[in-house]
Design brief:
The protein contains 10 helices and 26 strands. By secondary structure, it is an alpha+beta fold. It folds into 3 domains: 149 residues, no CATH class; 110 residues, Purple acid phosphatase-like, N-terminal (Immunoglobulin-like), CATH 2.60.40; 315 residues, Purple Acid Phosphatase, chain A, domain 2 (4-Layer Sandwich), CATH 3.60.21.70. Strands 9-5-4-14-13-12-24-25-26 form a 9-stranded mixed beta sheet. It has a 7-stranded mixed beta sheet with strand order 17-18-19-20-22-21-23, with helices on one face. Helix 2 packs antiparallel against helix 3. It is globular, with a radius of gyration of 28 Å. The N terminus is likely disordered. The structure holds fe (ii) ion (FE2).
Length: 611
Amino acid sequence: MARPRKQTFLGILGQIVAETMRVQPEREAVWDVSENRPTMRIRSNRRIMLSPGGAYNGFPSISTAPLSIEIATTEAEFNQAIAVNSCIAVWCLLHSLAAAAHLALLGKFLMNRPSSDANSLNRRAFIAGTSGLMLGSLGAQGVWLPTATAEEEAGVQVFQAMGTRVGEVTDTTAIVWTRCTAVRTRLEGGVKFMGRPKPRMAGDPPEVTVPVEELEGVCPGAPGKVRLRYGRKQDLSDAQITDWVTVTEDGDFIQQFALSGLEPNATYYYESQATGAQASTTTSLIRGQFETAPSAKTPSDFRFCVMTCQGYHDRGHPDGHPIYPAMLALRPKFTCLTGDLVYYDSNAPRAVTARLARYHWERMFSLPRLLEFNRNMATYWLKDDHDTLSDDAWPGMKAGEFTYAEGQEIFRQQAPLADGPCYRTFRWGRDLQIWLTDSRDYRSPNRMPDGPEKTIWGDEQKAWFKRTVQESDATWKILVSPNPLVGPDRPNKNDNHANRGFTHEGDEIRRWLQTHVPNNFFVICGDRHWQYHSVHPETGVQEFSVGPASDEHAGGTPGEDKSIHRFHRVKGGFLSVTLKPNSAKSDIVFRLHDVNGDVVYEYERAAPVGG
Ligand SMILES: [Fe+2]
């Protein structure tokens, strides 16, 4: 075994001293909307990290990275925190000096002894002991972040830190989604970003200067194997079980189980199992449940919910948006997640690479409230501009290295979504059929002059929509759209059917609806950050805007217009729709809720079965 030279210890000592001296805390006062109070942001340009097993025969190696601490506090407490932070830096210096000196003295003593197997063992024991001492003491000061355990590194243990998702549920089929992760839970702590990304000029340093794996909320993927048990009994004693499926980096470690042969109108329970690529026993279990749709002959007697537009930094609660527990409390059969589920461009850090885009999903969908909701709810996922690329984006655009096409692909991975077009329709019993449209895959550039060639839906989607609506015998027909069709929207917007730039196609669709389904057709839209119930003045098309997922995310309305709005509210919340059979009729109630679930508006209709 090669003996380390004396200067190695001096080198380590010198490095620790030099790096510690370079620690320079900064302070900055910001308004943290998620906490709804002033937040003092303390950043240090340096964090010292020691990793066992470094370059020199197992001696600790030293690396550095920026450290970000954020403390919600008062001005006085902030000054106190700065003082404490300075003390930490001094304490870190003194402690590091002491620990390094200890390491050097003991190392010198051992290295000067004659070489033998016994001495090698002693040296290893010394290294382990002193490394442990240093890492433990520095870790206790909060300057060392633990790395993966040996078991995790060996690929034996994997987790499902992003939970499970259930999508595309019909009366007999469903998709269950999971992803193998290297960590049991999201990284709490780590480098945290706040608010909107700052504008950047060409040549500016990148916004993210640390590995993505060090960012707050990250859930790095890991190769592994997954399988699913599912059945009608809660204890899964009747469960069917899939084969183990290997997940790899190619698919971002994601598996989507396509289930078929399910019973209509039934509760299903499932258990998603994961294990490391080289392991033989399950190391992670997640249990959940969902309900299948009633068949087309069964009277529709249930509730469903629709939500949209969830910011991360302005989510209203550290564990996730309040709408999630509020929706669960209503026990809906399913929920439509209607686009802008992450904000690549306006929630820092900006997604300028595919890895950063995936980080946005990891950070958002590992929040406790979202985990709880998604494992227990049938959901339908729609994408919009911010969760494809950026505000009002169209095919062919880029953000840094991140392309629109990558955004489309990542959405398909993250959403429990079958192959095929992102526009689709689902029947939920005798009285309800929903249409989910796509506004991103087929659209013309926004800057194109309006006219018969300019489109959001594209010819195929439009033909599919008209054909399937006319074929439907459901009592109520509802279009759930990621963008408004009625509005009104702000005059400076130019991205949807309620905007001047897409008037031609907007008029075509609204007139078609007026002609073919004048009575029992409704639009529910995402995208807009205020709630409303509008009736189009010329065609009578009715539209409900469900509003953003938190109050903090609300705004942007052009103002109330009594000639169009039946209801208008600039706050967050969600929409529920309740269907109830009533002898030869079906009742339907649209309710707009605030973020806590309280009803702020209600609209009720009844119609003979079959419309
Ligand atoms: Fe939005």
